[in-house]
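Students often ask why we bother predicting the structure of a whole assembly rather than each chain alone. The short answer is interfaces. A chain on its own may look different once its partners are present, and contacts between molecules only exist in the joint model. In this exercise we take three input lines together and write out one structure for the complete complex. Read the inputs first and try to guess which parts will touch.
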Amino acid sequence: MTEPVLAIRDLVVEFDTPDGVVHAVDGVSYEVYEGETLGVVGESGSGKSVTVMSALGLIQMPPGRIVRGEAVYKGRNIIGLPIDELRKIRNKEIAMIFQDPMTSLNPVYTVGDQIAEALHAHDEKLSDNEGRAKTISLLELVGVPNPNRRFDQYPHEYSGGMRQRAMIAMAMANKPSVLIADEPTTALDVTIQAQVLEVMKVAAEETGAATIMITHDLGVVAEMADRIAVMYGGKVVETGTVEEIYHSPRHPYTLGLMMSLPRITGEMKRLLPIPGNPPSLINRPPGCSFHPRCRMSEGRELCRTVVPELISGSETHPSACHFRDEVADEVLREAAATGIAAHGGRID
Amino acid sequence: MGTFIARRMLYSIPVIVAASFLVFFGMSLVTDPLSQLRLIPNLSQETLQNIIDRKHLDDPIIVQYGFWVKDMIFNQFGTTAVGDQPIWPDLQRAIGNTLQLVLISEAIAVVLAVILGVLSAKKQYSFFDYTTTTISFFGFSVPIFWFALVLQALATTFFLRTGIRLVYTFGQSSPDATNVFLDRVQHMILPIVTLAYVNVATYSRYQRASMLDVLHSDYIRTARAKGLNERTVTMKHALRNAMIPIVTIAALNFGAVLGGAVITETIFAWPGMGKFFIDSLVRGEVYTLMAWLMVTAVAVIVANLAADIIYGWLDPRIRYD
Amino acid sequence: MTDQQVRADEALETDATRAALESVHLEGLEVKSLTQWQLARRKFFQHRLAMTALVILTFIFLAALFAEFVAPYPYDAPNVPDRSLPPTLEGFHIFGTDKIGRDYFSRTLYGTRTSLYVAFIVAGVSTVVGIIVGGIAGYYGGKVDNILMRVTDLFLTLPFLAILLVLSSFLGAGNPIRVAFILAFLLWTSLARIVRGEFLSLREKEFVEAAKVLGASDNRIIFRHILPNIAGPIIVNATLVVATAILIEAALSFLGFGIQPPFPALGKLISDGQDALTTQWWLATFPGLTIVLIALCINFIGDGLRDALDPKQRIK
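Now the answer. The structure tokens for the assembled complex follow.
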């Protein structure tokens, strides 16, 4: 097996707040390989954004704190690097695209300037003209019409979709090896979403980068990702290919997610949301953090006391559940209740 | 940009007209020149009649307003009621003197406030931050006149104890000064410090809040994610956005600053508009007061216009107004 | 549906409800949420400076209110043998005496009472006027808003202190109530702007539309829906107005145009001591320090209130 381009290993990040210590990231591990797209899925507060931001040193410390863990980029741990080294990695090796294009661009400078800035920051010898030319071709690549004129315009003169394209251009500028998109389409209209996702695919192709797509939108993930890591309560609870996750989930939470998706095909009797609320990251439930909401944990001491490990290694489809092999049965039960078609333990 | 300025200037005209209404009719409501004049002892009937003629005091109020406006525009505000002295020369000199104080102190206040605000924001919760916060709170809790007095007392005591004349506590210049420039500076220091102190306190709080807001914004996160160094992030990306509110506040505060000048000049006996105002008020010279009010109104309008222009220069979002 | 399926259905349903109910009681879930006001109160009490300031201010307030009982001497009682004394414990002249022997602690106390009296009237009147003007402008918008805002702008254009001086000079101040109204006449503008801003933004919010759809009258919407939401900024601004009023009132009486004898005034006390700055420093210092202390306390309280009430000021 080849080495991953970026591997997060047992990352633990905490925040000190007046209400207590928030355990935002609680032992997260996943990898992304060259050329593939890893979808990181989870609710708000599951720790998906904090994980990648910590890797790049973008969280405020204090009140944040990286307790332990590594982010290994091309064999080198970038957590704890001095800021000068880290800056060389940002955007040039690992680039990020953020959620809200409305506020992610500085309103007082032109879009072109801001993209070119990313180029100049990592290449001192680049002339102004070269920077401009490169930026314009980037804008063209991401599908911004009339890039020559658009270079000199300000963010407020761009539409939401165009702004996100500009952000993608900015991320692609230095041909990074890893592209991290943090909820890139959440703030956009559905029709624009599709366009932006297309642009992201182009970006990944052009740069040959490994992509991490962070989202809570299961539709987006199905479209874009090769593999998926499901996060809950600051931990990764299951990883697998798209096929595995969507059709043969091995964790009750993932199952819950899949069951809660309304389907167009087939006959649906009712929606089955996951009962309860996301866990408090300050007062975490003992044992498995999902157990308060998990049907399978009823009457089981183990769930309440011991934290399940995400065992990978030889397993290609690891799950952090004590009773991971029983999930297939649960699939059948819930499928029967909701009317979602399922055959042989596999959701259709 | 040009049309923007032209349009704003055009818009200012009705405001000035409205201000003139307010000034004149407001003044008419609170004073009655005739009865006031009659109170002056030793005023001969002839002089009184002369004043009434000159100022059209027996005409309806609208007509008086008309004549006053005419005087204002064509005759440099005309003359005082009693004594028929031209108003403008003294007023003009007073304006010059006050501008010296106010412009310098505002400039110092803004610069200091920006520095303090930015540093406080960057080092939030540090010792520096808490110290500046405390000093700021003192700054806007201290009455200007009392602060001026304290400064005066300290300077005088220092001089009495050491015999060294560091600064002057009265007036604009000394008659026997050898280095006129230095002498002027020595006279200006205390009034400027007084005027600047309160404003530094207020502005730096705003600047700190604004800077904190900006530093937590998404585009700063983007800038860092691009790999820019902290200095570029602060000075290039954050600062320009954070300074926008200060500009507005400093300009809108102009009226208050002039008010502060009234008090400061009185205490330090600086021959500026403040002192001019108090003197006219004490003597009850209505026409001088009205001229003063109009000049100040225009000054405030100009300051607001300047603020809008600078704002438009700093923030491209509002250029296409 | 077969029997089996129906039973599976029911089982699932009760399971789900049970799980849901259970989850509320298990640990690992959020703390019970407080109402907005309870949250604000708790936050305010946590602000130590504001609490200290509140205590000090209450103390001063009570002392001034009961000045007749607290002050060792009346306001205007010359006592020539004890003249020009620096602060001393003898005869309780803790702030010293002036040229004709009047005890400055008592004078300061009475002066403080007047200042607080004026300041609260100013805050009250200007708040009411500000809410009315700002509310009408913000709620009805359009032309009404335009006109009212131009008027407010006009008030802001003319130099504040100068107008005050003119008004008090010609209308004859001297009496605290008059001064209070003159001050309120000019200080309502900041409140009007804030109220207007809040009304404008809240007007568009869904809960107002919902109320309208339910048939609520304009009045009801204003009083029951909008006002409680803007109470926060109003209270914060009102405290600032109190502080400003105290400072300006002192300036006016210092210059001789505000409150005048026989009414006690802190500014006047300071101006009385102006000539003897270096010799009898206590005359100008203590009244001044009192003003500073009161203003500081009010500002800290205002800061605490802002922390507690104004969501935009939260530290991230």
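Check your guess against this: DSSP finds 13 helices and no strands in chain B.
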